[in-house]
Amino acid sequence: MKHLSKLAWAALALLGAFCLGTVALRRGEPINALWIVAAAVSIYLVAYRYYGLFIANKVLGLDPTRATPAVLRNDGLDYVPTNKHVLFGHHFAAIAGAGPLVGPVLAAQMGYLPGTLWLIAGVVLAGAVQDFMVLVISNRRDARSLGDLVREEMGQVPGTIALFGAFLIMIIILAVLAMIVVKALAESPWGMFTVIATIPIALFMGVYMRYIRPGRIGEISVMGIALLLAAIWFGGIVAEHPTWGPAFTFSAAQITWMLIGYGFVAAVLPVWLLLAPRDYLSTFLKIGTIMGLAIGILIVMPELRMPALTQFTDGTGPVWKGSMFPFLFITIACGAVSGFHALISSGTTPKLLASEGHARYIGYGGMLMESFVAIMAMVAASIIDPGIYFAMNAPAAVIGTDVVEAARVVSEWGFTVTPDLLTATAADIGENSILSRAGGAPTLAVGIAQIFHAVLPGEGMMAFWYHFAILFEALFILTAVDAGTRAGRFMLQDLLGNFIPAMRKTEAWTPNLIATAGCVAMWGYFLYQGVNDPLGGINMLWPLFGIANQMLAGIALMLCTVVLFKTKKERYAWVSIMPTIWLLICTLYAGWIKIFDSNPALGFVAQANKYRDAIAAGNLIAPSKDFDGMQQIMINNYVNTGLTALFMLVVLSVLFYSVVAIRKARRNPQRTDRETPYVALTPEQQKVWL
Amino acid sequence: MAGALVPLEYFATHKRVWRRLVQTARLCCGVPDYDNYVRHTLEHHPERKVMDYPTFFRERQEARYGGRSGFRCC
């Protein structure tokens, strides 16, 4: 029996290798999306079975008889030992968001191959390792959060630096997410109407759950989703209407200001009124759409029309600039490795972990699942016509603003597309234009709409599914924006409280409003500069986001390494050192290029200098209309330079403190970590959870 | 086996699966299992007052979204 199972695993590994070989080596003819899906799934399973188990048994030494914080401090509220499948669902819903969906879409400009390989290799060797190890480390330290863990194991100073880094990342994430929404909704009355309609729907749900039938999540969510679908359908009528259509048409700049105002109001309203009900909608819609997409890909079995590799691997791509190394590895962050997961894996999930024996399934397995979502996003971006992909994602400065010009430029790149096709696609999805809809969300929505439409065809349904996909993305991005502003407000109050003690009072209105306004102003600034960026914004903000996110992953993995040395497991430290080194090289090198490269499309300083010189010489650079706008772009680039330098400084200082901590641990023959003492589960508890 | 009674576990299984699904959906919204909370409090913390469901729900909602840990991933 044992040999038979080994044989089956070997067969699965061979299947994965064969599929991957097909994906990598077949050139010139389009391949089916199922090759990618099969390659990914079989490699995930083999990695889970062998590498995951190796980390569980050898590196971390998991002990299922050891009581977890959820058992020891069980209160039925925060600390609850939970069924492992239930916890898996919860953990997955908490880590999966817009990141794994948008990153692969942007990376598809180099072809589907580089991104797919990085997603598979990255998750197996870095992303899942990070989530899993942080989960176990936090689990053995009373379910403490990442900041606390760094402070405890490495010292007060690196702990504060890590918290400060996390705050900066949050600001950048909020700005980049908000920009995706702005780009998706600009000049789109249908999308704008449905997104605005979510506000009264959420308010209704909030009041219903608070006063009419308290806590009935199920029934109100069903009602809410039905209302949402009705709103999407009705949005099509509104967009066609001669008066209401234009009334819901807004420019990117207008939506930016609306979003900034909304972010402030939503963050100070009571949570039950708007935030919580909309989060329910977005969670259920997200899980439903992801499952629908997986089933849809299996049924439709679409062919990938994007080439495996495009000429843009050299770094001249229109969507974002920069060569494959290092920029691919920061463009796809979530899905391969994401530092933000370390914040979920510490603090939230370990409070619910019933047994250490479940940690591999939830930590390693949950991240594999997220990577699978990213693979599906890559598929969705690659099944649409490459000509449409580039017309949707290249900035107006490159392809112009009318279909004839855009079709000519994109066709010159070798992705033949006609103006008629661009117009017809826009009409199919119920929009006026699909040109330069940067940000990934609209492209993904077209891909999702094509898959759903192939499964459930119908007249005009393509437009319905497109706006369904846009709404689904906008919904959870907006939820992230107000939840993030709220969390950022607390962080800011903590940070400022170090200097002005009165700011610490989180219950008082004045510090609350000041900190909320400060937080909104910070992400609003980056959002505003992204929306006004001549190269489309994504080129500027997404690398900052990628660098920041991978930097946090680097910090989490450095923590794991320090803990391995402190627990005298240095023999296995390569497991976390290997991804750490890779992430540090990628982030630091990318940061270096973003600051110092002499190409203005790449380097912030070079871009700032270009605008400075042009202002001095009195030359207007399109699409800027006056010198004030150019002055602003110059300042923005200096700010981004400073921010990138700050990120690099944070990484380097945590690296310094890690090395100090490791050297100290090696000098000491005893274990020096802060693990909580072993408490055995009682035999009854073991029977329930093992 | 034709004619045999439907085994008891048959009914138990789909009920259990449904219950797990409901638990997952609720936990995703930050609301842990209420029955489990009541049983746990009665068994282990008899001195504590057991909250009724609406109170429990509001308390959990505030804990989930009101505080520092509301933010989820990108």
Cα distance spanning the termini of chain A = 23 Å
β-strand number of chain B: 0
What kind of assembly state do the chains in view correspond to?
A: heterodimer
Largest sheet of chain A: none
Profile the largest sheet of chain B.
Answer: none
Ranges of chain A where pLDDT stays below 50 over 5 or more residues in a row are: none
User: What series of H and E elements makes up the topology of chain A?
Assistant: HHHHHHHHHHHHHHHHHHHHHHHHHHHH
Please provide a written account of the structure:
The complex is a heterodimer of chains A (about 700) and B (about 70). Chain A is mainly α and about 700 residues long. In chain A, about 75% of the residues lie in helices and about 0% in strands. Chain A has helices spanning about 1-25, 35-60, 70, 85-95, 100-105, 110-140, 145-155, 155-185, 190-210, 215-240, 245, 250-270, 275-300, 325-330, 340-350, 360-385, 385-395, 395-400, 405-410, 420-430, 440-455, 460-495, 510-530, 540-565, 575-595, 605-615, 625-665, 685-690. In chain A, α2 (about 35-60) runs parallel beside α6 and α6 (about 110-140) packs across α25. Chain A is globular. The two termini of chain A are about 25 Å apart. Helices cover about 60% and strands about 0% of the residues of chain B. Chain B contains 3 helices and no strands. Chain B is flat and about 55 Å long. Classes of the chains: A mainly alpha (about 700), B mainly alpha (about 70). Chains A and B meet through α4, α8, α13, α15 and α22 of A and α1, α2 and α3 of B.
Tell me the layout of helices and strands:
The complex is a heterodimer of chains A (690) and B (74).
Chain A: H1 2-25, H2 33-59, H3 69-72, H4 84-95, H5 99-107, H6 112-139, H7 146-154, H8 156-185, H9 189-212, H10 217-240, H11 244-247, H12 252-268, H13 275-300, H14 324-331, H15 340-348, H16 359-383, H17 386-393, H18 396-399, H19 403-412, H20 419-428, H21 441-455, H22 461-497, H23 509-531, H24 538-566, H25 574-596, H26 604-617, H27 627-667, H28 683-689
Helix pairs in contact in A: 1-2, 2-6, 2-16, 4-16, 5-16, 6-15, 6-16, 6-24, 6-25, 7-8, 7-24, 8-12, 8-22, 8-23, 8-24, 8-27, 9-10, 9-13, 9-22, 10-13, 10-22, 12-22, 12-23, 13-21, 13-22, 14-24, 14-25, 16-21, 19-20, 21-22, 22-23, 24-25, 24-27, 25-27, 26-27
Chain B: H1 8-28, H2 34-44, H3 53-66
